[in-house]
Amino acid sequence: MADAEGKAEDSAKGGMNKKMLFLVLLALLVVGGGGAGVFFMSGGDSDGKGRSPDAYAAAESKAEDESDLGFIGPVIDLEPFVVNLADPDQLRYLKVAIKLQLDRPQEETDFTIKLPAIRDALLVLLTSKESRSLRTVDGKMLVRHEIGGRVNAIMKKGKIQQVYFTEFIIQ
Description:
CATH superfamily of the largest domain: Band 7 domain
Shape: elongated
CATH architecture of the largest domain: 2-Layer Sandwich
Largest sheet: 4 strands, antiparallel
Helix content: 55-70%
CATH class of the largest domain: Alpha Beta
Low-confidence stretches: 43-53
Oligomer: single chain
Distance between the termini: 95 Å
Number of strands: 4
């Protein structure tokens, strides 16, 4: 009889130890799973913003460039452009609204005086494009780069930091 009581006590202790071990393992699994979920949802980077390593490096270099300038300039709206595209087989139109970010206050640039020349240069550029090249992201990025280069070539005081498309319709 005493033997049976000893076995019952041992099995009760073993059951209690197994329960405790199970709860500890479950808690570790929940905490570890939660941490892994946060890591993967944030893209696996150290700042938790979900950026890829290349995007993170680009953001760092852009931040360094902007800190060198010490000023993020105003954004100027241009009147929308509606132009014929250079498609040989069909008549196609492009309507595009553009915003230009200056590298300094507008009063310190010759942007206002050069605005007619800037609009002319952009009209010539946009009418030289075909719709198939403008439909791709790469095509839009190329035009954005070309716009910045043409405007900066015209301006003598101040430069364009960034070109933004706020409307882009091909018909």
